[in-house]
Amino acid sequence: xxxxxxxxxxHIEQQVTLTNxxxxxxxxxxxxxxxHKHQYxxxxxxxxxxxxxxxxxxxxxxxxxxxxxEHILQFAMGDAWITDLQAFQLGTKATLDINCLEDxxxxxxxxxxxxxxxxxxGKMEKFFRKKTTEESINLQRRILCLISNNARDRYEDLLExxxxxxxxxxxxxxxxxxxxxRETLSRLALT
Amino acid sequence: xxxxxxxxxxHIEQQVTLTNxxxxxxxxxxxxxxxHKHQYxxxxxxxxxxxxxxxxxxxxxxxxxxxxxEHILQFAMGDAWITDLQAFQLGTKATLDINCLEDxxxxxxxxxxxxxxxxxxGKMEKFFRKKTTEESINLQRRILCLISNNARDRYEDLLExxxxxxxxxxxxxxxxxxxxxRETLSRLALT
DNA sequence: CGCGCGATTGAGTAATTTCAAATCTAGTGG
DNA sequence: CCACTAGATTTGAAATTACTCAATCGCGCG
Lengths: 191, 191
Hints:
Two copies of one chain form a homodimer. Chain A is of the alpha+beta class. Chain A has nine helices and eight strands. In chain A, helix 4 crosses helix 5. The mean pLDDT of chain A is about 95.
């Protein structure tokens, strides 16, 4: 049992309890893989083969608009899932890029394997339901933050939620995540 | 079998197929209820007893900031789910108001009943997982729209996604949903 | 007719963006 | 140890976008 496996099991057991046999079984549906900094997990225009559990490291998902500007949808630090959800679910081409900001270890699962796993092990169906519900709650919070608050408040909100983020992510990327220009973020001088 | 029941069954069967017995069984977990225009499904500060499937009518969820301004998180037209997800899941007090904009017919389910139903009927666990995944995809799209686009493009985006919305929702509320002032929305004169 | 509500318009102000230039910083090679 | 470069960050100034507050318009309804 590697450290990654133990961490992943603990991650799943936040939602459902597992026997050793169940964990061993479900684990066979995943592939562990290392990615180096700057490597892509998903590239716009390609099909999306996997959903990724980021065990260690840091990845971001983003889209690039017609003026070439990048907009960051998500940072996935340790213990988080990331993919181009729409493309993954529907089997369409990615509209997002997903790129590692640090050397990263991920556990990957294909759509086929995930659906099979959900059918064969009800606890995993439940796990994904709960996890996705959590995800929706977080996305709703972010939407309310975006429509309710100005740039400064959104920035403070982010720092509060991810205290260590400034040490790992450039301010230009944080600006892109918050939906403001990097110059504006820079002028919010604080903390 | 009422029209509402038939509609609800079709809604569920968009994700999973059901036998008559399964539908009858799952349906016992829900309560059908009518609400009149302006009635609250959820009020800020109260506990959230149910998740609501809006069969007919229209409800909105919103939060009110410290300056008294309302920010609209969601419109639930026919065939959509709505609740204060965070408060419902965690059993905490609502931070959202949910209010009917029209006379509305809803099917309501408590957290306890939903969890029981998911345990007793794997297809419903799957249904909720799929539905919540869809929800996440939509929320992600909205976030990208909010951080990528200006007010005009967000407005056009909304009209494209919900063509009939102007006939059912005041422009002040649409502005609140888009995160702009109603005066600004008014000045985007088009369509 | 006149009230009430939603929508629009006007004018001034505030927030944010853009483009350009200056500064800072970490890592590299001499 | 230092100079140098590439990338990140900050700063400046003007332009744009959006907001606020107030007034007006339009329309359905008693």
